[in-house]
Amino acid sequence: MFKETLSLSKGLLTDPEPQLRKLFNGEIKAAAPAAIYVLYVSAHAFFLSVRPPDFPAEFAALGIGGWSEATQFSYLKSCAFYFFTEMFWSTALTAASSALLLYFLGTFSGGRIFFKLLLWTSGMLGCAAITFYAGKAPLFLLLAAALLFVAGIIRSRQKIFWRFFQAALAMSVITAAALPLEFAAVYLRSENLFMAVELAAALWLIVLFTKTAKVFTATSVPRAVISLVAGCLATLLVLRLLYGTGLISKETYELLFLIA
Description:
The longest helix is centred in the middle third of the chain and has 36 residues, at about 70-105. The protein has helices at about 1-15, 15-25, 30-50, 55-60, 70-105, 115-135, 135-155, 160-170, 170-190, 190-215, 220-245, 250-260. The protein has one domain (about 1-260). The protein is about 85% helix and about 0% strand. The protein is an all-alpha fold and about 260 residues long.
């Protein structure tokens, strides 16, 4: 498994398409993407624990604490909080996001995309209005509907979903590869370097997603990008519903929003 994990990691960083095709064809064991993801979450949890709470300034308003304001005990508690939050909630959101992305890749793959975008925008605006202004009862109903919708996608596309989900987990190798530079940015107190690394990783992930979309659904790059935006916004809506219904704490919501 170690060799397969190493080969998958190296391949996704240097020549991703053959590795994505192996994932699509089921030629890679699920343990390899899972191992990449667990190693990334462990390293990222440690990074969040030692990063100063006011760095970078753009994220300081979220109030996520760090080593500089904590005793060793609270630091370890903080590290555990980051790890288990990412392992449970972030993994669950990744699964939901994978299902939603598959749905939108199918929806926007053909036909008159303008009318589909108009319908999607209207629906999202309506759901967002409910999310921010309605009481808890409507939010629970909307969350239940969203989860049933996601479950329906997973059930109807079970085989391709699990392989797409594995690809999503394996993509964490990109953010893992960026962590050494982010550690360096924190050490140097260079917010510009940190933001540049974050931006580069985000762009790299977008490119990797378009390649994944091509392998799994044979869609074009523009339609893949539209699907990515639609899927990410829908995932953020689910996250907001989890917070609005009180199922996750403010601290958990802020962390998930930061890393989503």
